[in-house]
Amino acid sequence: MDVIGDILLLILERIDSPVYLVRAASTCKRWHGIIADAGFLRRFRSAHAPSLVAGDYFNGMFSETALKLLSFVLVPRLKDRPSFVPVAASSSPIAARHYFSLDFLPGDGDDRPPHWAILDSRGSLLLLYRMASGRPFDGVYPDCVVCEPVTRRYKRIPPPPNLKPSYSYRGIYLIDGEADMAGARIGMSNFRVLYMFEHYSPETGLDACTGTAMFTAGSSGSPSWGSWTPRLNQGLANMHDLGRAGGSQYFYVQGRNLLVALDRSSGEFSHAVFPPPSENQGDGDGDFDLPTCRRLFYATDGRDGEPRIFTVFDETMRVYAKLGGGEWALEKSLSLPEATRGLPGYQDEFFFGQPRPLDIVTRGPGYVILSPRILATWLVTVDLETMQVTLAAAADTGAVMYRCEIPWPPVLNSV
């Protein structure tokens, strides 16, 4: 019995996996025609965005030995290549690790394995930079590539024109391009890259103003496949990256209790006042020792998909949420000595007598993993929704999660 068109359309839209969708498109010409329609693909992506998540990348892996040796600050072993961890719910071959290997990236030219580190991710793309002899980049502009692991394609991102030695690199981020007919806003032919730097500004008299430039990818078949354009000058100094959350990149302006958000879709900046992240800031200019404390001050996604900013100061963890009017307010707080005292392995020495007792090992949607600075192998997880604290498994990931999706729209073979 033939299924009428409207009912067939509803059935196909309820397929919960892009892999099964591709298989359905190979069934017959009728199904292929329905699925290949740009309107169908746009609706499918809107309804099943979580199913497009393939897994997460991390720069290097923690090992038990590394955890025992690192007592000041936990960092990944940069000599290791970035690692990929598939989403737990995925049983599809598309999420297998070998599909997301980065071994196709260019080497060093002398048969040595390349040293690449991930700077950012967006959709199915990664932004990476080459590390000289395994050392982190420190300069004006990194040697960057944008790649799509599943399709094993990559493109080098040339430096912006008119770079000056006085410029100081502050960050580089993937930004969406223009949406195509299927609703995809980022891919190997329609992405943007925002470069941020600090420089001296004669107009403001400041020694470190933030400037930006935007690279826009063009046609892969053209001789010049992309170009840089200058962007606005923020006119702000001491902007420190707090990480990604809710589709934005967040920065804190030291000394001004000012939060700056970069919209990862539009590439535009917005400002908001942020409550003082430490009760010890006093009544002065609101400044505090951010270079020391920045590892304890981050943004991440909540389990509800909304952004959260959390701090760990003076044995207390605070979680801030964005209100309906755009302002930020304290949502929850937690005394970490009290919350962890009953856990196996707890010691009073972890907290008492320590000027900065805890470091943030890693964070992800809805959780944070912490460890005492004097015993890096004792790890606890804080659920940002319930504020419940449990022992964490031995850390097997790096400090920052870079989420990667399956490319969209899918490649539909003709039938």
Automatic annotation (TrEMBL):
<feature type="domain" description="F-box">
    <location>
        <begin position="6"/>
        <end position="38"/>
    </location>
</feature>
<protein>
    <recommendedName>
        <fullName>F-box domain-containing protein</fullName>
    </recommendedName>
</protein>
<dbReference type="Pfam" id="PF12937">
    <property type="entry name" value="F-box-like"/>
</dbReference>
<dbReference type="InterPro" id="IPR036047">
    <property type="entry name" value="F-box-like_dom_sf"/>
</dbReference>
<dbReference type="InterPro" id="IPR001810">
    <property type="entry name" value="F-box_dom"/>
</dbReference>
